[in-house]
Specification:
Blueprint (H helix, E strand, L loop, with lengths): L1 H25 L10 H10 L1 H23 L2 H9 L2 H11 L6 H20 L11 H22 L6 H26 L5 H6 L1 H23 L2 H23 L8 H20 L8 H11 L3
Helix pairs in contact: 1-3, 1-4, 1-5, 1-10, 4-6, 4-11, 5-11, 6-12, 7-8, 7-11, 8-10, 8-11, 10-11
């Protein structure tokens, strides 16, 4: 499982680098429109920043799949949540996105939660099982939450910043659906059975919708906040899936259970604190008027 955690850590780094690259590219691209999804995707990939970010995201996804095959889902997602540490450092040092005091506090407690999870992780490992009924219930519920968030974000009274945050949450929820489905496919008996499984289609559908929702959220919302909320939603959905679908334990023994529960809470709380203070994004302010003028 240690190898799986290391791969998950590499995936977390690559994921946040990809998000920051995609954010820089998305704010320069034509706005995503529901009626013209292919045109919107083409406009995104014409931006070299977004294209490079997408390639890095593919690498992050491959590492994520490898981690899911080697370690419990809830633990992998907790490590990915700890990627907010990378997000904070990279955003300030290389992308001119400044974080406030509460956001740095969130980064600190996220790192603390990640450390506790790493220390207590080995004792909770056990053979993986999966529940089809639990999978259907979790996937259906999270998909419904994502659909509601998408519908609310499209309301005419919703301004750009709330729209971006809502779309980030929706994208994260749908990324979580995809993660749970992919983890389930790692249990498939044979590669062909896995590829022909309806959960392959579920992962692809959720991932495609999340792609557009995430790109739009990066265009209209504050970058660091949107990325953080996307991570919170994705990891929370996947951690819940790990416990309910794959019967993953919180810990072994009262002390480990208590420590891991507190650690999970710290990770989620740390991510939730990221949007407390609005991050300054000077580049996006100069780019959005140009994008908004495109019909």
């Amino acid at each position: 499982m240690i190898l799986g955690l290391l791969i998950a850590l590499a995936s977390a780094l690559a994921t946040n680098v990809a998000f920051l690259f995609k954010h820089r590219g998305a704010i320069r691209a034509e706005p995503i429109a529901v009626r013209h999804p292919l045109r919107g995707a083409a406009a995104l990939f014409r931006s070299k920043w977004f294209a490079v970010g997408w390639l890095v995201a593919v690498l992050a996804w491959a590492l994520h799949v490898g981690a899911l095959a080697l370690a419990p889902l809830s633990i992998v997602q907790a490590v990915l949540s700890g990627g907010l540490v990378f997000l904070a450092v990279l955003a300030e040092r290389f992308f001119d996105l400044r974080l406030g005091r509460w956001q740095w506090f969130g980064v600190t407690i996220t790192a603390a939660g990640l450390a506790v999870i790493g220390v207590t992780g080995s004792g909770a490992a056990r053979p993986q099982r999966s529940s089809l009924a639990g999978l259907i219930a979790v996937e259906g519920a999270v998909f419904a939450v994502g659909a509601v968030l998408l519908a609310v974000s499209a309301h005419r009274r919703i301004t750009r910043r709330p729209e971006g945050l809502l779309l980030g949450l929706a994208a994260g929820a749908l990324f979580g659906v995809s993660d749970v489905a992919i983890k389930y496919l790692t249990h498939a008996e044979g590669a062909l059975h896995g590829l022909l499984s309806p959960w392959t289609a579920t992962a692809l559908l959720a991932g495609t919708i999340a792609f557009y929702a995430s790109a739009r959220s990066l265009q209209v919302g504050p970058g660091v906040e949107v990325i953080a909320l996307t991570a919170v939603a994705a990891n929370l959905a996947a951690i819940i899936g790990g416990i309910l679908v794959f019967d993953e334990p919180i810990g072994s023994g009262p002390l480990a259970i208590g420590a891991r529960f507190v650690a999970f809470c710290l990770v989620i709380l740390g991510a939730a604190l990221m949007p407390v203070q609005h991050a300054e994004e000077p580049e996006s302010e100069t780019s959005r008027p140009l994008a908004a003028s495109v019909s």
